[in-house]
Design brief:
about 425 residues; mainly alpha; hpI Integrase, Chain A; 3 domains; 8 strands; about 10% strand
Length: about 425
């Protein structure tokens, strides 16, 4: 007997025929599950037709089981974005995928149910104008708007390459790239965050900030640093300048007499970077590792309890386990706000505003600026941060002219060239007279 109901299947068994409903390949990918319908044909037909009605409701955007993904119509913007995620974005670093999600969701909200052909240059310009309106009129600001349009350009390039769209309506979308963030960390910012982290009993935040400024790596890579990333750097690596080894080797601690450093395989570039660490930052890292290897921990009430072994240098203060990036960003924000509130209470509104403008991600750029102020060349800076040389040049060209440290070095050099000590005001006044 040939069954006419979609998805209804009959399978012979020694005890007789049994009936099943089976999803199509596309339905199975959306997490619809097959169901057993028993041996009564009439009841099986009724159950199969009921399931097919549920499938139709799902296809029209109606109710669906919790485990089933939302239906995406073919040839719609949402379908194109879905393919872009799977075929392009999936091959990028996790940080890139995470950054892309907000712009992609905004594109889906804007035109997800519309056919790809609905998106024209005129509609892209209308989207741009709507996003650039004042916030009280629904606008989102220059930075977010630019990233939505830029991601739209990337998605439509993929759709054009796959013959799913005739042209890219996001090309030359008429909104300039927003200026680089004119923000970098300075010593008084770090001191304020350290104090706030201590007050809130969040030492892991202070350590994360110290490492971010010291080794200049991306947030995700710093949070994921395993205990094994901390290791001795062989003396042979110092053959170009053997005296540096003895200069950087610690005279105390668990690895006295050795140069210790952090080895990072960058998640985005897959490049290895090895960075010697000395001084107070080395002692903080060794203390954090010793704490990670301890098998017990003291709760806020003072009770001693067993804890799971920690695998990362930086762990959550509550239980020592690795930070999830979203959770870290949230807690870092609380520490930063506490620091800003303390500054404002102390009457330093300028410092409070500076602290509120800081992001953890600014530490990587700040590391480059700090090393540049020390007079290091681009290759030496890149050996620490892992940046490409042209990226380092761009960062330094953007920020170095603004740093007072570099200006001070220039003034001192000019004074020396004029044959007088820098800062000699009396001599300067005599010269003018």
């Amino acid at each position: 007997m040939k069954l006419k109901v979609k998805g209804l299947r009959a399978k012979p068994y020694p005890g007789g025929i049994r009936y099943y409903w089976e999803p199509s390949p596309a339905e199975r990918r959306a997490k619809w599950q097959g169901i057993s319908l028993g041996s009564d044909l009439a009841a099986a037909v009724t159950a199969a037709e009921k399931r097919n009605a549920e499938i139709e409701e799902w296809r029209t955007g109606g109710a669906r089981p919790r485990a089933v993904a939302a239906y995406v119509k073919r040839n719609t913007v949402a379908a194109g974005i879905k393919r872009y995620r799977a075929e392009v974005l999936a091959h990028h670093a996790a940080s890139t995928r995470r950054t892309a999600e907000t712009p992609l969701k905004r594109l889906e909200t804007w035109a997800g149910d519309m056919p790809i052909s609905w998106v024209t240059r005129a509609r892209v310009k209308a989207l741009r104008d709507a996003m650039m309106k004042p916030e009280d009129q629904g606008g989102i600001g220059h930075h977010p708007a630019f990233h939505v349009l830029e991601r739209g350009r990337a998605v439509w390039k993929f759709l054009v390459d796959e013959d799913l769209a005739p042209a890219n309506p996001f090309v030359e979308f008429g909104l300039g790239k927003p200026p680089a963030r004119q923000v970098y960390w300075e010593d008084h910012h770090r001191a304020a965050i350290d104090a706030a982290a201590a007050a809130l009993q969040r030492p892991s935040i202070a350590l994360a900030v110290a490492l971010g400024l010291y080794i200049g790596q991306r947030e995700a890579d710093i949070l994921a640093l395993p205990l094994t990333a901390w290791r001795p750097i062989p003396r042979a690596k110092f053959r170009a300048d053997p005296a540096l080894y003895d200069q950087l080797a610690s005279s105390d601690g668990p690895h006295a007499g050795q140069v210790m450093g952090i080895y990072v395989r960058q998640g985005k570039t897959k490049r290895w970077v090895g960075i010697p660490v000395e001084g107070e930052d080395r002692r903080r890292i060794e203390a954090a590792i010793a704490e990670a290897k301890a098998t017990t921990m003291r709760s806020s009430s003072g009770a001693i309890a067993q804890k799971a072994p920690r695998t990362t240098i930086i762990g959550r203060d509550s239980d020592g386990q690795p930070w999830q990036q979203d959770n870290f960003i949230e807690v870092f924000g609380k520490v930063r706000q506490h620091a800003a509130d303390q500054a404002r209470t102390a009457g330093d509104a300028a410092l409070a505003a500076e602290l509120e403008a800081l992001w953890y991600g600014d530490l990587r750029r700040s590391c480059v600026v700090f090393l540049g102020e020390l007079g290091l060349d681009d290759a030496a800076i890149g050996a620490i941060t892992g940046h490409k040389l042209n990226t380092i040049k761009t960062i330094l060209e953007t920020y170095m002219p603004r740093t007072e440290g570099m200006a001070a070095r220039a003034i001192a050099a000019r004074a020396e060239a004029q044959g007088r000590p820098a800062g000699n005001v009396v001599q300067l006044q005599q010269d003018r007279s």
